[in-house]
Design the sequence.
């Protein structure tokens, strides 16, 4: 993978120590930088000096690519698109207005659909002509997409593509601590350890579990302990 050009950081990102103490809440645009996502952060930090009109960000569900894309979207004032937005080719120029930037979620879903492939090809060319940029989100690298339109395939394979890994234990622990701290909830290390052995390795599930525990604790007016987690979550985790 090509190394992104060095630029001052544009995203609201920071490294967070992985201690298990209470930390103050951070803004919704903060992002936990870890080995599994630092390359993606570096590439988005390098915008707008990308070597191509598009950057492909891929990784499994729950790896944080949508969160990271939202941070870039706010910075670039980009439109958020789904593949269904590509159905009307006449509307393609409007998808890049007013800032000539857009995020396309689920971009691998264009593969195998002639109309969608053609539209993404035209949108890519429009972005290039307008001096704009596309951030394409997908679960798999474009080399694994079954693209039937040769011109689109060549453009996607020429664009930089950066992968994101599912959160490892250290990152997931930091995420759980942050989620509780953002809600001004103190939990013991034993709660974090218990959740780590029973929680699906995804940011989305971590957010769901913490929200469930928070609502239940408020309703019951009880602290969040391991025993309380067992009572509330049961088989959910």
Sequence:
């Amino acid at each position: 993978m090509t190394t992104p050009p060095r630029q001052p950081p544009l995203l609201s990102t920071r490294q967070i120590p992985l201690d298990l103490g209470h930390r103050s809440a951070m803004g919704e645009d903060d992002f936990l930088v870890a080995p599994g996502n630092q390359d993606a952060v570096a590439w988005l930090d390098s915008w707008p000096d990308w070597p191509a009109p598009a950057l492909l960000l891929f990784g499994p569900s729950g790896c944080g690519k949508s969160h990271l894309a939202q941070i870039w979207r706010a910075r670039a004032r980009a439109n958020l698109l789904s593949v269904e937005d590509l159905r009307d080719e006449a509307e393609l120029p409007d998808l890049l207005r007013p800032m000539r930037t857009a995020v396309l979620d689920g971009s691998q879903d264009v593969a195998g659909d002639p109309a969608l492939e053609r539209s993404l090809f035209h949108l890519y060319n429009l972005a290039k002509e307008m001096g704009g940029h596309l951030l394409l989100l997908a679960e798999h690298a474009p080399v694994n997409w079954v693209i039937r339109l040769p011109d689109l395939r060549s453009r996607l394979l020429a664009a930089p593509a950066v992968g994101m890994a599912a959160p490892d234990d250290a990152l997931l622990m930091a995420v759980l601590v942050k989620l509780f701290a953002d809600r001004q909830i103190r939990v013991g290390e034993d709660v974090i350890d218990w959740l780590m052995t029973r929680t699906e390795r995804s940011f989305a599930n971590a957010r769901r579990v913490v929200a469930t525990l928070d609502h239940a604790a408020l309703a019951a007016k009880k602290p969040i302990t391991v025993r309380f987690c067992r009572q509330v979550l049961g088989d959910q985790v």
Remarks:
- Residues 173 and 192 are 7 Å apart (CA to CA).
- The first helix runs from residue 38 to 45.
- The radius of gyration is 20 Å.
